[in-house]
Amino acid sequence: QLQLQESGPGLVKPSETLSLTCTVSGGSISSSSYYWGWIRQPPGKGLEWIGSIYYSGSTYYNPSLKSRVTISVDTSKNQFSLKLSSVTAADTAVYYCARHMWLAPFDPWGQGTLVTVSS
Amino acid sequence: EIVLTQSPDFQSVTPKEKVTITCRASQSIGSSLHWYQQKPDQSPKLLIKYASQSISGVPSRFSGSGSGTDFTLTINSLEAEDAAAYYCHQSSSLPVLFGQGTKLEIK
Fold first, then answer.
1. Per-residue model confidence as pLDDT tens digits over A36-63
2. Which residues on chain A are in Cβ contact (under 8 Å) with B97?
């Protein structure tokens, strides 16, 4: 059974870079046809897609965040990562990783990790 | 980009009631519309994919319908465990987007 687990600092200072890693277990991140995405949810609010990556390294970002986002993949560790630069309080959210096929639903999701931006 | 608008934002219902949540897209998305359930302090769970396709392990009281711009999630004979937020999600084109969510409260 495929499982995803987010990890990283729970507190980031304003203007710094948020860095998270998603570890995939129970399956290979190099499986063809699957993409690996990041989605976030500010406290009490809705869901926002951040971006996705294919194991080959091809990336797709939400235009609203594109200038600040970098998603990368490490197939040797079965992990993919998110970097979000120049963070502000508005970036405080639960960050989820999830698997999907091209233009398809997200399933499964990781349990999520809360990142708070505060000095 | 395609905008999704869900209604209602909030609904308080009694067990065994039938619930209908709608999702309207700002332009046609065919059947590329999916529904998720999110219980408090949990990650979203896929309920229905491609407008009406059922997901293994999801109770049969959950069903979806629609195509083009108008979609519906129906919960027949609501149970207490269905208290959650429900989100629609379009994957017709990038950027993929979610509806604002519908919070379901059980009386």
1. 999 999 999 999 999 999 999 999 999 9
2. 49
**Can you give the C-alpha Rg of chain B in angstroms?**
13
Report yes or no: B64 at the A interface, CB cutoff 8 Å.
no
User: According to the model, what pLDDT value does residue B1 have?
Assistant: 85
Q: Is the minimum CB–CB distance between A5 and chain B shorter than 8 Å? A: no
Provide the 10 A C-beta neighbour count for residue A50: 23
pLDDT, one tens digit per residue, over B31-85 is 999 999 999 999 999 999 999 999 999 999 999 999 999 999 999 999 999 999 9
Q: Which residues in A lie closer than 8 A to residue B50 (C-beta atoms)?
A: 105
Spatial separation of the C-alpha atoms in residues B7 and B62, rounded to whole Å: 17
- Label residue B105 left, alpha or beta by phi (over 0 means left) and psi (-120 to 50 means alpha): beta
Q: H helices of chain A, where?
A: none
> What letter represents residue B56's amino acid?
S
Which residues of chain A make contact with B93, given a CB cutoff of 8 A?
Answer: 103
